[in-house]
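Sample entry was shown:
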Amino acid sequence: MKQIFGIKNCQSVKKALDFLDSKGVVYEFVDYKKNPPSLELLKEWVEKRGIEKVLNKKGTTYKALNLKEKDLSESELLEVMSQNPTLIKRPILVDEGILEFGFCKEVYESLC
């Protein structure tokens, strides 16, 4: 079963959920403000897709923590992300062999 990780009030997550609902796709939603991904899961995602795909540099949390000015290693960034899940790009679509960050209608159509 597909899993969607995200935050309910995020516009990108809402678009993804609306899209999946409109296509009748069955999925499990994981609100990562309430159930943040473990550090191990974050490491796995970064190993598969790279830190640039996983880290949300456009969000307010990234700016508030001044991460652009800090020279953090990948492991330090992972630690900060595990403590601040809003630093993770969203939504995250996980299914057999699929790990997609962000919502792009065309990509979702090809995967669903």
Observations:
- The chain is about 45% helix and 15% strand.
- Strands lie at 2-6, 27-31, 92-95, 98-101.
- The CA atoms of residues 35 and 45 lie 16 Å apart.
